[in-house]
Each structure stands twice: as C-alpha cells, then as structure tokens.
Write a structure and sequence with these properties.
Helix content is 48%, strand content 20%. By secondary structure, it is an alpha+beta fold. The strands form 3 sheets. A 3-stranded antiparallel β-sheet has the order 1-2-3.
Length: 297
Amino acid sequence: MAAITASMVAELRAKTDAPMMECKKALTEADGNMDKAEEILRVKLGNKAGKAAARITAEGVVTAFIDGSTGALLETNCETDFVTKNESFLAMARAAAELVAQHNPDDVAALGQLPYEQDGFGPTLEDVRKGLIGKIGENMSFRRFKRFAGDARLASYLHGTRIGVVVEYTGDEVAAKDVAMHVAAMKPVALTSADVPAELIDKERSVATAKAQESGKPADIAAKMIEGSVQKYLKEVSLFNQPFVKNDKQTVEQMLKATDTTLKGFTLYVVGEGIEKKVDDFAAEVAAQVAAAKSSS
C-alpha cells in the first residue's frame, strides 16, 4: 500500500475541489495513483470534481500570426504571471509566432536557430531567449507550436494571452471568427463525435460504468445509463454538436450551414495545459528547516 502524504492530498484537492477527507479516501482506494483517485472522486461527487481540474497552473502566453492562408499558433512559457506582462517577453513571443509561419521550423530547437535580434541580443531567437532570461531573471521557453499552410483561410481568436485558437475554413470570415471565439469559451476536443479520441471515450465510459454499478440498477438499465452518459459526453465535447455561444437555439454546425461556411479544423492552446505544477509540502518544508536549525546549533 502506497503511503498517502499530505502533499498528495493537497494536490488532489486543488485539482478537484473535493473535501480533504474524500481526497484522502480516494487516494487510499487508488493506492496513491492520482489519475485513478480523480476518477473515483468524479464517480462519487459528480462533475464538481472535474471543474477545478481544468485550472491552469503554469504561466505564459499564447500568440498567433496570420498572413493570408499561412499562420501559426505558439505557446511560450515562463515562471510567473509578472513576466507575462513584460513587453520584451511579449515581443519575443509574438515574433516567434511570425517566424514559425514564415520559416516552417521542424521543432522548437529549429525555431530557436532562426535569425532574430531584439533588445541587443541575437543573432538567433535562442540567443534572444537566453539574453532575456539573464535580463529579466526568470526562465522562459517555447513549448509548442502549430503552423498552418494550404488552401483554407485562417481566423484566430486570443482570449487575453492565455487562450488562443486558430480555425481553418472556407466561407464567411465573421462566422469563422465567431467559431474561434466559441472554441476558446467551450473548449471542444474534436470537430465531431466520431473524431473524439478513443482514450477519452474509454475514460468517460469507465466513470459512467462505476456510477452505474454504484446505482444498484439492473444490468440492462445500467447498460442504458452507461451508453447514455457516453453519448451525452460526446455531444458536449464535439464542436459541431455544441450549442453556439452567440445563439444557443442552434448548434455550431447549424450556424455554419446557415452562413455557408465549412470548417476544416481548429487548434486550441491553453497556457500550461498538461503541465504539472510542483506542489510544495509546506509542513514538511518547515519541519526540515527546524531540523536543520537544530543540527547546526
């Protein structure tokens, strides 16, 4: 049996908003597995446990650049929110997105080798990054990017600096920009239900199965409950099935059809998504400092 520490309980509570004792029970039942414990809480507590899990802890900005049918979406990370308001950091992030669109680098390492000068640093983007680290006194890095090029038109939407969306479309520009804004607000995972990744469906089915088992319903009714939950989930996370944010009387698919617009794809970046932030065990840290003080006295 894995040891359940206070820091593990605190981390699960921060992710789920569940009561402390429920977090400890779930971790014990899951033998210390954080993901499994989170699923257990979702079964017991419903959707409340999933809401706080979407909170983003890492800092940084998302920048976009579009020039005709060529464009880029880029996430640049830093250590604190303070730096996300630094104009030199923002200028580098904006320039890096433009470099991605113009030069089509293979990866982040190749992006860093592209020619760029700023604030007296250069001659490459990597040199500028290192120079700003020294100047600002905080680590920063380019995490991920996507380049767009082809026959489709592009529209982007940035919600502040933390959420960025690019959609690929043909048709009406206003409709496309509205969809980009919708994606930022509703965060779909795929265009259609058929496009939702199998691993996400399997996870949802697992949660629905556990809920059905706890309900004590007969097997045939439980099976219908499970399938109903999965189908509801698929509609909620597929863009075309979502109620349009500007008019919830129609779906996004219906809005696009009404405006004679075809959506070929979308890319959504949320700053820090998927990054695990270090959770400090404050009590343990204090105890360690006290012990160190005693040993040195």
